[in-house]
Each structure stands twice: as structure tokens, then as C-alpha cells.
Amino acid sequence: MSRVSLKPGSIAPNFEGRSAEGPIQFHQWSGNSWTIVFSHPGSSISKELYAVARRLSDIDQRGIKIIGFSRNWQEESQHWDRVLHHYDRQFASGKNVQLIADDQGRLSDLYEMLPHRDHHGVVSNPNTAFLVDPRKVIKLVLSYPSFLSTDLNQILRFVDDHTGPLQDIPTEMFGLDANGHGQIYGQETKASGGEVADAVTVAKGAASLVGNLTKDISSGDTSGSSNTTVTQTTDYIQHAMSVMDSLSDLGKVMPFIAPAFVLIKAIIAVEQRARDVDTKCTDLVQRVTFMLSHLPMLKKINVTDSTRQVIDRMNETLKKAAALIQTYRKQSVIARRLSVHNKDRFESCATSLGQCTNDLMLSLQIHQSTQLDILTRPIPSDPEDEAATRFVASHGGIDAVKGNEALVKQFASEMKLTVDDDVLEQLNTNISVALQQNQDRLEQSLNETVSASVVEGIRGLAAQMNEAAKEQTLVCVQCEKEYRDSTNGEKSCSFHRDEYDSWSKSYRCCNTKNPCQAGKHRSEHHCDYPYGNFFPFARNITNYTDTTEKWSEIEDVNLETSKKLSVSIARLLRWKSRGAQPELPTILVRVGNFSISEPFAFKTFNTKELELISKVVDITHQPVIFRVWHSEQEYALAEWVLSAAGIIVGVKITAKAATSDKPFIHFCPIDITSCTLSGDIRVLSEGGFRSYKPETPYVLPDIQRVTGNLLEKPPREVRTNFKTRTTPDLPVVLKLISNPPLMANPDFANSEIDYFTGTISVLNKNKVNSQEPISISSLTIFYRFIGEKTYQPVKSVELLDGVTLPTSIDPRQTLRLKFGAHVLRSEEDVKTDTRWWNRAFVARQRPLRFKVVLTDFDEEECSLVLDYVNPTYDLEKPGTDDLAFFFVDDPLTWKRYGVHVVSSPGNGPGAVKIGNESLNADAMKKLVYQALKTGESEILLNAGRENDKGRPSAWSWKAWALVDLSCRRLYAFKILILKPSGTSHTYACMGYVSCPDYGGSYEETRPIRYATEAATFPELEPPSSDPIVLDDDFDDLAPGEASEASLASKSSGVGSPSQFAVPDEVQNRLASIDNNLSRLATAMEQLVELLKTK
Q1: Which residues have C-beta within 8 Å of that of residue 860, sequence separation ≥ 6?
Q2: Residue 790 burial by CB count (10 A; 0-12/13-18/19+): exposed, middle or buried?
Q3: Helix (H, G, I), strand (E, B) or coil at 728
Q4: Residue 1018 DSSP symbol
Q5: pTM of the entire structure?
Q6: Residue 70 CB neighbours (<10 A)
Q7: Fewer CB within 10 Å, N side or C side of the chain?
Q8: What does DSSP assign to residue 11?
Q9: How many alpha carbons lie under 13 Å from residue 535 in its C-beta half-sphere?
Q10: pLDDT tens digits for 911-958?
Q11: CA triplet 360, 362, 367: central angle to 5 degrees?
């Protein structure tokens, strides 16, 4: 017998073995029952046998068979007998538990229940138990360290959740012929007006419906503490089943009572699955049975519109009763008892049933009978309910008990009950929400049941098509693999719930490569549950303009959670952009947002499907297409609207958030024969959180600002009219070549110095024939700021363009000198860590001047002054889309620090951007909602920033929203900017800007109420207003003052000792004579050289 890999979805291997009752062939012995196959990787299964014996009544009730592999068979068979006797069990009660001799471990190895070493030498954990369904498919696998004794509860819950109760319904008696008619149309029931009643069978789909319902029915108390077991022969259930049978017969001629048949069957299924008696459930079932037992009288009367209305109300009441019983039975015994308000819900449901029964009897012309006491009697109470009521009252009420695990365990101990792991969770679950969820599932399943019955009605043609489809090869949209219907099982398809993320190279749903979900193959896209391929399919439709013709869309936002609830309806034009069109006219309804964790609908309906749905909705009176969330305070909903003739004439879409006063409701009229609009979209309700219009305009305070001043344009022109200062013994002329005279930081920037470059020329004024060159031994540069009276040396000087000193200049020749000079910044300036290109940070507030001094070997000096005025760069200013711009200027860092408030229409009407933070209409409404809840009308926004913290350029700003609590409106934003400057100053600006109209207001006006502001403008000293000196005459050469100026310069250690000035006209004439003499001297030198060579 070869070893195979077993996992959920595999067929359980068949085997033969020896038991105490003789040979057993596994598949034959298990029959149509659920089966547990177990063993133990050790040598004994004693602990597992004890666990089975303790829960044997629960196991027998479910009809589960158990088979164990024993490697010590004889001894453990005797041990099993002793265990049964210990728990007061008769041996016959354990007949479905068999131990199979497996001394050699052959069967254990077949089921991988022994340790196994793979080809890498790694020992795998052995399996310990298998759950096998009636089709011999493995559903659960337990592996070491899990055992049957530790996870038996899990197995029993799984069986409960996956067992359907309606396999015995004779659905073959409800067929339709190829024309859509059958024996259920044998009699025609006339309604008022002579209309022939709609006829459709639903019993065939009832089995599917109740099977879905019981998947959600938990076993209640799985602790084995039930006092009484409810069997299928219980009187009240038998009575209900008899009434159900009569409804089945009645449904052949009156299909509109089919929902009642389905719902009573659902209630019976719930009670059949229950394992304890509950007087409240029994009483409610008896009331339902009594009401439905009168329906056969419909055969004897003329069914009118009023009768149909009574039947519709009856079906609604039945749904509530079924949902209540289902929800109640899902709770454990402890949760039921301690939830003392459960009785109130049963009393409310009993009252509704009584009123409905009275109306039904009047409509059916039934006189009162002695049984009417069933409608007026009170809801019975169990002694356990009364004990729970006393316990809760004596311990501070239900809120105190349900949050205290110790009290819950105390109550369980007093009642001799076992505490389940999820008792506290059940006690703290909102049962009203669970009731609504169960009722919604009932409605959805009821629609699906009727729809399935109508579709499957054309049996002749459908049978042929189904046979052909079984052999047809299809492609699954979930896993993209081929399959056939004949081999399509419950777990045939493996897929991921979400898409593949190419960035993280994993699937978002599970972060693994292996599929995390299993189900049936599907050939068409759907939204029944999430799967990875659905999302690109849906985006191909929703993200393009040529795929749909949008008719109506609404969206509401929860202002506390930011959850969006959206609904839309459109006509489907293409399945993807530039792709194929639908074969038939089709509409698209979308409810909710695409998600793997929250419900949503993305459904298409073509003309044929809409015709079918009209019939279904007319019979079931369940118009809901899909609903997201079950609270009346928050939901999104799409529903069909029918005419009086029972034909769909439109779709109504609704969205409401819990924070909204009213829902958004739109009605979209449609023609289902062509899937087109048949009229204008009607707005039935404008929802959302809305403001009121102010009676008077808002008046905002003026801007407050304490700031420095920055130059926005050059304060003056650069001066170039400085003359050479020299002595008669150093006849040179210095001229400025560079324009402007000085360039700052042209090629690099440094935070500690500013680097200047300039170019001058030096002319030797001696005559050409004088043979008196001038030797320049050094170049020194000094600087001062305008307004100062003393020059100081620069940090360093360098000559550029390859010129070196000392150097000689021949008479009437010119020397070009390009220099670079470094000027140190102050300690305060260095701390700002500012790097400027093409500007000098040291000269940001006032100009400076260089004095370039040349010295010869005789220490004679000449000098020239170069003026520098900082070029200005455009400061930050308001933009074209700005609603406001608030700023301060800091002369220390020479920067403008500002905040823009910009209109941002791309984010929706009224949207603004404050700094880098965007606020759309939803965000603004959220701020107003927050203000109304807290009473604080000034709300600090998250938009503020602290920039360059710990540095001289540090600055911060904050923004507040100002809310009018009377008009429920955000009317303005307030901005505060703070900029410390050095150690002695702080600059600040506070400004207000009106909030744009972001929509969503009532027509009603209210008086305005300004916000109560806590943030105020700080008390600051105004900045110094001393005027800045932009120019002076310190370096100007006054007539007749040359020598004095030179002497003053000499005495200060800077510049030349004297000044010799030559008129320009004389200089020009002398230069001409010098040039001629120079040429003559050159010719003579050439002649002398020529003579020497001869």
C-alpha cells in the first residue's frame, strides 16, 4: 500500500482492517456519515478515547463515525469498554466508534500518522486525526502537537457549519416544462382586477437556502453540559413539519406563499440542530406554526390585494423570527442566560406574530378559536433564566458582568456549565447587529432561491444544455486553469484573495506564493468573495471613460472613521477600454469599495436577467440588490423599484454615514428592455453633514506682523568713479577692468567666508625712453563696510591667471592683475551656515569696498577703491492661486519665511492647501464635526511645521481652523509664524484667511458665532529702526586734498603715502611721445645687434 500525500480536498484512502465486530472496509462502513480517523504517533490512544467518551452524545447526535488505529489493539479495546462504563455509557451507544488493529503501523503510515524523514533528512510532524465528509473527501487534518483530544470541539463545529438539513425534500415534484409551465400552474388563483397570479416554484431552491443558513448555526454549547437532547421526533418540530408539508402542496397553486415555506423550513432546521431544550424557542416555533397552519384556507377564498399585503407582512415577520432563533441558537448556553435582554426580543417578536396572525385570520375570514390563547400567553422563562436574572442584578447589571471574566466563570460554576473560549466575545457582541446580518442573509438567500428556481424551470432544454456543459472545457477566472463541470468540486480551485504585488514580490493577502483560498472553479467574474483576478477586471471597467456611461453616483463619509460609503449605477459599454461590448444591453451596479476585508458589490445585469429579476422581486418582495453594513445609522444600499404591475422601473441608491443627518438618495429610472435611462435622475434626499448659511458676512482681524526688512531691489548703483591714489615716486595708473568691479562667490560657496574676485590694470607712466621700469613687489587688499572709517585686511589674497609677484612693468606698458580675496564672516554669520553663490553674505545688509594696494621695492604705494553692492534676488511672493501669503523677514539669515494658503480645485470644490497640507471638503466637515463634539471652535491643524530645529535658520508655523458652531461651518484659517533671530529678537506674523465655500449647506440661515480663540499674537519688541548707511564720501578725492588724504591713509597703515594727479590731456600727449620714442629705441637696439653679428 503506497504512501500518498494527504491534505484537505484529497480523497481519504480506503482500507480494510480488523475490529472487535469483525472485518471493516472503511468506505463501505462510513457510508453517508462524517467520519473521524485518528491515531497517535506514540504507543497509546488512551487520552483520545477518554475525549471521545466524554462527548459521545454530541458525536452520536451528529451521526459521526469514528475509527482509530491502535498498535496495541487488544488491550486498548478492553480499555474502551472500561471508559464507556466509567461514563455510564452503554456499549451500544459507542457502536459507531471502532478501533482497528494496526500492530505493524501499516494504516498509520498510509495516513501519514508516523514520523517521516524527507529526502533532505528533515523529520515532518505526523498527522494525528482526519475529518472526512460523506463523499470521502478530507476536510480537516490535525498534525502533531494537535490531537483529537485537544481539538474535538473544532471538529464538531466544522461539522455543524458544513452540514445541510434538507437533503430529504422531494424537490422533483416542483418541475417546470420547456415553456416555463408545469403542474404548479394547474390552478390559477385570481387576484383583484382579474390578474392571473405569478406562478413560480421555489421549493427546489429551498434546500440550498437552508443549507446556507445552517452553515452559520453554531453548535451553541459544545461543552457536553446540555441537559436534554432535542431529537427529530420532538412534538413541536413534528407539528411544524406537518404544516410545512401543507405549505409545499399549497405552493403548487399559490407561489407567493413560497417564502413562508422556505422560512419555516429554515426554522425547523435550526431547531433540529439544537442540542438543548429552550422554552423561548419552543414557544416562538409554536406561535409561527399556529400562524402558518391557517394558510391552506387561501384555497377557499378569492385572493385580493389586501390578502397579498397581509401575506407580505407575514413573510417579513417570519424573517425576523427566523433571524432571532438563528442568532439566539448561535450563542452558548452561558451567553444566552446572561444576556437577560434576550427575553425582551422574544416578547417583541411574539407580539408581532400575534398581530400578524390576527390580521391573517381576519383576511382569511376565520372566526376565533379556543387556540387563541397561544397569541396572548406570556413568553415562558426557564429556571436558568430566572437564576441568571438574579445573578446579573446582584452583581451590578449586565454591563458589569459581561466585562468581568471572573463573574462569568462564577455564574458558570453555580449553574454547572463549562465556559467556552468565546463566551466573553459573545456577551460583548452587539446582538442587534447580528440579528440584522442574519435577516439580510435570509433576504439574499430567499432571492437567490427563487431566482434559481425560475432559471432551472425550463427543464427539457436546460437538461440538454447541462449535459453538454458538463463536457465543455471552461477556463476559471480565479485560477486561470481549465476545468469541466463534471469534475468541479467544492475545493477544486486554489487561488489568492488579493493581487500580486510586484514591488514586494508577494501576494498582499498572505505574503506567500502558495494560494491561500480554495473553492469551486468559476467561469465568470463575480463578487461573491474576493479573488486576485477580480480587481484588475474591475479596474479595467471603472478606471476608463469609454467603458461605462455613468448615470448616478453618491458617496458619504463617516467623519469619525473616514470610511467612505459609495453607490453608483451606470450602463456598461465595454468590458475594458477599447474592448468588446456586452452581448446584451447591460447595466452595472456598484455598492461599497473594492476590498478583501469588507463587503462590496460589483454586479452586472443584462436585459434577460432583469426580466427574470422582475419576477423574483415581485414574488419575494425583496428589492435589495446589495447592502453594505447593517446599521440603520450607516449603510450603502442599492435596490430595485417596481411598478404596480411588478416590473422593474428603476434603481434607488442610498448612502448614509453615521455622522450624517440624512442619507443621500437618488432614483434612477431605467427601461429594462433596453438598459437605458427612461427619465431624469431624481434626487430624493441630499445627505451628508451639512452647514447653515450665515446671516451676515464674516469679518476677519487684520494681519499682525513684527518683522525685519530685506532689500527687494539694489539700494543704489555700483560706483566706478574712484581714482588712482599714488605718490610722485610711483608713477602708475590703476584702472578697473572687471564689471562689476567685484564678483562674490562666483564658483563655490562656503559657510565661513565670502570669496571676491576682481581685475585691474597697472600702467607704468614713465616715458618710453626713460628706461625706468616699475617693479611691483606686493599686492594687499583691505575692506570696510559703508559707514565705517577704517579699512581692515582681508583674510587672504591670491593672484589669478598665472601672474606672480614681484614683477616689472616697462615704461608705458600695462600689467593686468586678476585677484581673489577671502573675507571672513562674523561668528554670528557663521552659525547661520549659509552658502550663497554670486552674492556676498557679509554684504547682505550694506555695501562694502575693497582698497587694492600695490607696493614697489622702495615701499612706495598706490591704491584703487572697488565698490561692491550685493545683487538682489527675488524674494518669495504670493502666487497666482494664493488665497493668502503670510511671512516674516529675518535680516540675520536674509531669508523670507512664509506660508502659502492656496486654492486647490483639483482636490474638489472649496479645497485648500496650507503649506504642504491639503484639506478637501470632507476634511473640513470632519473638523466642524470634531468642534461640535468637543465644543472647541479653534482647532489646531496638522499642517504646521518646525523647520531647521536647533539651527539659526529655525522657524515654525502653526495653523488653526476657526469654526462657527452656530452655522456648523469652517469660516476661516489662522496662521501664526514665529522666527527667532539670534538671541535678542523674535519675528512673528499672524494672519487670517477666509475659507472658500466647500458646499453642502442648508438654505436655512443662522446668526454667526465667531470662534473662541486661545492662540494669540505674542508680545514682541519691534525690531531696530536705525537707518542703514548705503554710501559715504570716505573714499572720494576732494580737490586740493590729495596729499592730506594720502597722509591720512599712510597714518592709518593703509593705502599710499601721497597722491600725484596728472591732467588727462597731458597724459595723452606724453603717451604719444613715449610710444614714438619707444619705437625708435627698439630700432636702435636691433641695429646694434646686427652690427655685432658682423
Answers
A1: 726, 727, 729, 730, 1056, 1057
A2: exposed
A3: coil
A4: P
A5: 0.57
A6: 26
A7: C
A8: B
A9: 16
A10: 999 998 999 999 999 999 999 999 999 999 998 899 988 888 899 999
A11: 115
